[in-house]
Amino acid sequence: TLSLVWLRRDLRLHDNAALYHALRSGRPVLPLFIFDRIILDDLEDRHDRRVEFIVQEINRLRDELAQMGTALIVRYGKPIDVWKELAEQYNIGDVFTNHDYEVYAKDRDKAVGELLAERGIGFHTSKDQAIFERDEVLSGSKSPYTVFTPYSRNWHGKLNAFYLKSYPTKQYFRQFYKTGALSVPTLDEMNFRPVGEPFPARTVADKLLSKYDETRDFPALPHSTSQLSIHLRFGTISIRELARQAKKADDRTFLNELCWRDFYFQVLDHFPHVEKHSFRRDYDHIRWRNKENEFEAWCRGETGYPLVDAGMRQLNTIGWMHNRVRMITASFLCKHLLIDWRWGEAYFGKKLRDYDLSANNGGWQWAAGSGTDAAPYFRVFNPTLQAQKFDPKGEYIRHWIPELNSLNYPQPIVEHAMARQRAIDTYKKGLTKD
Ligand code: FAD
After folding, report:
1. For a disulfide at 370, which of 237, 278, 420, 427, Cβ 3.0-4.6 Å?
2. Ligand 1 atom closest to the CA of 232, numbered from 1
3. Do 104 and 214 touch, CB atoms closer than 8 A?
4. Which residues line ligand 1 (CB under 6 A)?
5. How far apart are CA 376 and CA 174, in angstroms?
6. How far, in Å, CA of 61 to CA of 58, rounded?
7. Are 156 and 124 in contact (CB under 8 A)?
8. Residue nearest to atom 48 of ligand 1 (CA)
9. CA distance linking residue 362 with residue 378, whole number of Å
10. ipTM strictly over 0.90?
């Protein structure tokens, strides 16, 4: 009888909660990964960096496991169907996996848990990708926080060595079931093509921690931010190890970003309506203009506002955008163009290599002013002033827009002062409707 550990957003063997519990179950252990067709079939662009990254990391795991004389089971299909087959094929006693806070994932896990229970198989889940989750950081009245600052105060206050301890999986690796390596589907077999660009390093640059507070708002600097987001998204690094490093370097600003990550996980977990609606329901009444041609100009990076366009071109070219610029491009779409934040959210969702529903939704609702931690709607970023402040020499802008000073660069799609006033008026009207 085996214990299976189902890897999802935790593609590593060290410091992995579910794997640790599986290895300690007393039964031989086999890890499993499912390429989920429900997700993959929906991806229009078959050059998808995320799928490429997962394939790369799954092959790495397969090799690491092969060196220990064990295997990774890899399947391509719908999770519930795959589990039906696995339960037939293997003698499974227990299944271990880590929590996921997305609605789709919670429903999937519930269905799989029930299927396994019918077959007498235990389904055990653990916290792994967050430092604090669910009800671990609550307000004085025991309700979930909806404003970041008090949440973060509580979060930082609770952050002690206990919560950052690693799960020492390595000392139990002998518990892996001994068997020959199994095959991994290729990108081609799943009808994807490689983009073929290297992914950022898995480690945080020495220069970054302790200087992060000074660098993080300047997109032109080479180590402005860590670029670890894809690794955090797929769990190829451990959040606990990273937080320990930041704590050791006494980098509270960096830790605060990890706090935002936990914050948005718990928002999605407690308020699942945010996936489709504004957190503040009254914001669903805003009459967006939703002009398709303007949306397309924004997507292509042709709004005539250099910082907005540089950001969109960075996103389109490398599948990542600097945080400061994410805020500015998102705000521009919602406020200057009055396009529904959900359009922008979906576009980022297609393009970002670090796409994570909770952080992306949180970031977009923040920009639209509709979210948990919103600035008042009458605060509208001025993209020209933002560029002067955060890209004072125009280096970031010129890198992404080489034709900036030529006739080929478009005129501003909308005039700032007019757009600002129009946004304020439209929001006001929408919010006082009922
Ligand atoms: P660093 O600055 O080095 O931060 C370290 C880590 O902290 C990040 O990797 C990330 O995991 C976390 N983090 C940092 N800022 C935030 C934040 N505001 N919210 C949540 N976590 C944060 N982040 C995503 O991981 N996926 C997304 O899909 C995503 N979409 C966004 C959309 C918008 C409109 C905005 C404004 C922000 C979004 N962010 C998203 C948050 C942030 O922009 C990215 O996490 C960050 O730019 C990733 O680069 P980095 O790893 O160099 O970050």
Report:
1. 278
2. 11
3. no
4. 216, 225-229, 232-233, 257-258, 260-261, 264, 323, 326-327, 330, 348, 352, 354-356, 359-360, 362-364, 367
5. 56
6. 5
7. no
8. 229
9. 19
10. yes
Q: Tokens representing 338?
A: 């009055």
Q: Domains in the chain and their CATH numbers?
A: 1-128 (3.40.50.620), 129-165+206-270 (1.25.40.80), 275-429 (1.10.579.10)
Q: For ligand 1, what atom is nearest to the CA of residue 352?
A: 28
pLDDT, tens digit (0-9, with 9 covering 90-100), for 87-136: 999 999 999 999 999 999 999 999 999 999 999 999 999 999 999 999 99
> Which residues 6+ apart lie within 8 Å of 40 measured at CB?
51, 190, 192
Q: How far apart are the first and last CA of the chain?
A: 60
Instruction: Provide the annotated active-site residues.
Output: 257, 260, 288, 323, 341, 364
Give the span between the Cα atoms of 160 and 163, in whole angstroms.
Answer: 6
Q: In whole angstroms, how far apart are CA 373 and each of 1, 228, 355?
A: 49, 24, 20
Output the pLDDT for position 210. Answer: 79
Determine the pLDDT at residue 434.
Answer: 53
SS3 327: helix
Residue with tokens 């827009």: 401
Q: Is 168 helix (H, G, I), strand (E, B) or coil?
A: coil
C-alpha of residue 342 to centroid of ligand 1, in Å:
18
